[in-house]
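Researcher: Here's a chain I'd like modeled. Treat it as a single chain, no partners, no ligands.
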Amino acid sequence: MPTSDVTAPAPDPAWLEVALAEARTGLAGGGIPIGAALIGPDGTVLGRGHNRRVQDDDPSAHGETAAFRDAGRQRDYRATTMVTTLSPCWYCSGLVRQFGIGAVLIGEARTFGGGHDWLAEHGVRVTVLDDPRCVALMEEFVAARPELWDEDVGVAPGGRVGRAGGRGGVELPPPR
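Model: Modeled as a single isolated chain. Structure tokens:
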């Protein structure tokens, strides 16, 4: 990835509203309530989406990938911000790193630890808001649909270990 002084602007917490609306749309459609948006350097919404794993029967249809795809091809991602209601999993964290997305704004990281620490260690500006609406949305979903949540985070049937803090509560080493 080429280096330059191009960086993402400081995240605006108001951007979370777009991702939260997407999460609610996903839940209303019978899916997992995780929403995301890719924001341009001037604050415009380039793309938005929500987790559609259930609706599309596609394990790769995560909120962040949906927002990324909705944004279409961009010449440069360094000055963009990925906004997500939940800490991104390793798959979505890899997408951020692969394309050099400069910042990630996260609604909450209590329910799922994801890869945000790894992203920060690799120069991505990470902001965790600990937004109570995002926390409540995920906690209510996990309580109501534990089997679907376990499937989403990679816990085998009967293997539930409690609240997820990595993948289903099992911390994994960072990808190489």
